[in-house]
């Protein structure tokens, strides 16, 4: 019997046994570093000479894995096998497809720390964050499986005398999943299994930064019984195969999560009908954020400082949901800043593959350089009050950094940095705070810390973000609790982990029978 969906609990690392088990998983994974990984097409493992080399960002000398790179010819082969697999996969019942996801979730749950340990190497994710990433991947599988079974019943519509009308959903055809590196298990799993459980074969092109943990997911889905051709694993250079996957005339949907630049490029290219293409492509594009926490004059200031701290510096601010703007009422500005700085003093920075730290390294040299550049920009745009140090001798380490008195129109307040940098700005009243919060092109997450119900009610409608939080931070959406997706240039508001998500990968069909 299938129990109702329940969110996978997080591991409590204050318990000694849990810490020891995690250390054992890190040790086990360390023993497997540096291996070679193939592409997977039609169930066949293909090793190529040209490899993506994945390094541990916290220890640049450590190779996590060497992953075969797909070419355009491999994309063609994978698409051919996906089209063949579609003929049968679409006819599996929703329950049969869901059972594969239940089994995959069970396999990951049994090896949970091992998956999180891979995240500690492949993306340098701290233990708690890695554990939450793995838990979210399990949640996506469990949630979408149950939800597909519900959707397979179709929806009620009206009959008339002598006429029976039925409204139901069917799969669309093969499509492409293109995830980012920052939730290297959860987002890869969610964006891959959703179209699959809906009956569509998927060509998965993982991020070049974190291909090994993506391979581990594909292995699990195969072990769980996914038929050949339903999932192809195509790591590669996005400059070589990215456009090709999107443009392919047989691609029915592109399930993308990543930056605004790549997302808008994909939306534009997917809108062009290619020779031989017989359908319109659907694009789900979940993109960047420039997320704000507002602190009202009557707020609980400890709650405010804690919310800013963990939303800005959790996983080194490398979340689309990260708080990079703190907009504070003038009467409490100094106090909130002081409390946040005080909390930031306790943040530990190090290599999570070796120890339990608050922040690991940022993902690569490019990101490290970009964040350092924004720190320099911030010094000209306002006052550096905490942090600012960065060291890439061993890994790409950037310390938590806080700026104050930044103009709402300044670059630090407008551009996505994707690192541990938060800018404070002062406002005179709630109107001004809301105006500042809405003055970016993004609209992903936001939070209001306030005890004024009238202000909270206004924010409910006027704070223009897809995920709004009251009296807590703006990161950490949980499948089934906080369906996730942004407004404006943050994306297509697909609401991952929510009741509308699977419909992006389904066609609704109306059948009307006259008797
Ligand atoms: N809104 C969300 O739910 C969400 C979640 C996580 C991350 N993000 C965003 O993702 C970004 C960070 O991730 P990233 O650095 O991996 O983003 P990115 O746009 O650089 O890459 C995302 C994916 O797109 C691929 N890609 C790059 N060029 C491509 C092309 N021309 N055609 C097809 N695919 C191509 C990459 O290989 C990768 O797999 C941030 O902007 C962050 O805010 C958004
Ligand atoms: N869903 C995650 C963010 C994903 C983007 O990086 C959160 O809610 O913090």
TrEMBL record:
UniProt xrefs under Pfam families: Aldedh (PF00171)
Specify the Aldehyde dehydrogenase domain's residue ranges.
Answer: 51-510
Q: What is the lineage of its organism?
A: Bacteria, Bacillati, Bacillota, Bacilli, Bacillales
Family annotation (PROSITE patterns): ALDEHYDE_DEHYDR_CYS (PS00070), ALDEHYDE_DEHYDR_GLU (PS00687)
From the UniProt record, report the name of the gene that encodes this protein: pruA
Involved pathway(s) = Amino-acid degradation; L-proline degradation into L-glutamate; L-glutamate from L-proline: step 2/2
Could you tell me the EC number(s) of this protein?
1.2.1.88
Q: Which reaction does it catalyse?
A: L-glutamate 5-semialdehyde + NAD(+) + H2O = L-glutamate + NADH + 2 H(+)
Arranged from A to Z, the UniProt key words for this protein are: NAD, Oxidoreductase
- What is the species listed in this Swiss-Prot or TrEMBL entry? Virgibacillus xinjiangensis
What protein am I looking at? 1-pyrroline-5-carboxylate dehydrogenase
